[in-house]
Amino acid sequence: MKTTIYSRWDGTQAEFELDPERVLDAMSDLLMDGRDVREALEWMRQHGFELGGLDMRVMGVEELLNDLRRQADDLRERYEMSRATDALRRRLDDILDREQAAVRDAHGFESARLNDFMDRRFGPSEKLSDAIERFRDYVFEDEAAGEEFAELIAETERLRALEDFLERHGEQFRGAETADYETAQTVRERMERITQLARNLAEGNFEAVPADALRELLGDPAANSILILQQLEPNLEAAGLLRGGEDPALTPRAIRRIGAHALAEVFAALRKDRRGGHETRERGVSLPRPDETKPYAFGEPLDLDVVRTLLRAVARRAAALGEDGPQARVRLAVEDFVVRESESTTQSTTVLLLDMSWSMSWAGRFAAAKRVALAMDHLIRTRFPRDHFFVVGFSTRARELATRELPEISWDMGEPFTNLQEGLMVAERLIVRHPSASPQIIVITDGQPTAYFTRGELHVEWPLGFGGISPHAVAETMKTVHRVTRRGITINTFMLDDAPELLGFVERVTEVNRGRAFYTEPGRLGSFVMVDYLKGRRAKRR
Question: Which domains does the chain have, with CATH numbers?
Answer without folding.
Answer: 20-78+187-250 (no CATH), 86-170 (no CATH), 285-345 (no CATH), 348-541 (3.40.50.410)
